[in-house]
Amino acid sequence: LKLAKHGDNYQVMTKEFLSLVSKNLTLKTKEEKTKLKSAAYMLVELGFKSEAVHFFQALIQQQTKKLNSDEMQELVYLWGPDASKVDVDWLLKEANKDPNAEWLKILNQIGAYKETVELYKSGAIYQTNLGEIFYIEALFKQEKVAESEKLLQGLSFAKYSLKELLIIRELVNPKKMPEVLENLSQVILTKEPGNVKARFDLAEVAYQKEKFKTVVELLAPIIQEKDLAGYAYFYYAVALGKIDKVKQSRGEFERLKQYLLNLNPTSKTEYLANQMLLAEVEVKQNNPKGSQKIYGKLYKMYPGNKDVLANYTQILMDQNEYGKAGALLQQNFKESNS
């Protein structure tokens, strides 16, 4: 394989190698398994995905602890979030040999949400705390939002481990389920008092309820943390102003502005979120023209984005530019109906 990787006829050589090794996949020694594993990784590098999958499956079948093995994670990576029915069926056979709620997590990772639901319902061994979480996630991914939200609202968070609570957190929409998020965050903090994300979540709920003093109390101890989301600084700055700490509020807005200007987003989604927050900061700093300029740019970059259109139109109307705002809405109405 090492020679093949640097040769012109690597495909022929690799197929010959596969033919030889596939005839004897009964591995007895640790050294043999290590060599085959190395070969499987090289197959991935060479682009032989299906053959690499076959090798990793052979390795997994000979292990007693399959679920959390490196080979299983490699398989999940190779399959991606859209595994074939053949791959899913193979996984289900392995799950039947060693029933465990962790299989539901893997099924979700490869996009087999329907199978997750069926496996969860098939027996009590899958209906653990962890299994329930992945079951709810599968329902959500199948767009059964009302059902998944109802289950989330009925969870008794105290019975879950910290690891499980953090997985649940990823399923909770802060704007749609603030009470659930508030209860969840409080329980997380009882298990890990220094959890920065949980404090921020509580502050976000308090901000929605306009409890600005509470927002400041929650964020002040963690506002210097490097991993805080940009909106944590925004909520903090706004809340300071609402409790008459105007000078400090202005300082925090300026700090947030510099923070956003120095960020280097790695994706278009991150860039959009960064710029929209920056536009909000410009408004708070009494610079609506700056916000208008940002949204003018975003409108061209993200055509069809409803949030950008709504915010851009609003800032135009706030500047009494009703003609331009109306033209934007009319143009988008025509395009959406064409």
Summarize the amount of helix as a percent range: over 70%
- The radius of gyration over CA amounts to 26 Å
Order of helices and strands: HHHHHHHHHHHHHHHHHHHH
Structural class: mainly alpha
Strand residue content: under 5%
Principal-axis shape equals globular
Q: Tell me the distance between the termini.
A: 55 Å
The residue-averaged pLDDT reads 88
Q: Counting H and I runs of at least 4 residues, what is the number of helices?
A: 20
How many strand units? 0
Task: Extract low-pLDDT stretches.
Answer: none
Largest sheet: none
SSE map:
Elements: H1 2-5, H2 10-22, H3 30-46, H4 49-61, H5 70-79, H6 85-97, H7 102-109, H8 113-122, H9 129-141, H10 145-153, H11 162-169, H12 178-191, H13 196-208, H14 212-219, H15 230-242, H16 246-262, H17 268-284, H18 288-301, H19 306-318, H20 322-336
Helix pairs in contact: 3-4, 4-5, 7-8, 7-9, 8-9, 9-10, 11-12, 12-13, 13-14, 14-15, 15-16, 15-17, 16-17, 17-18, 18-19, 19-20
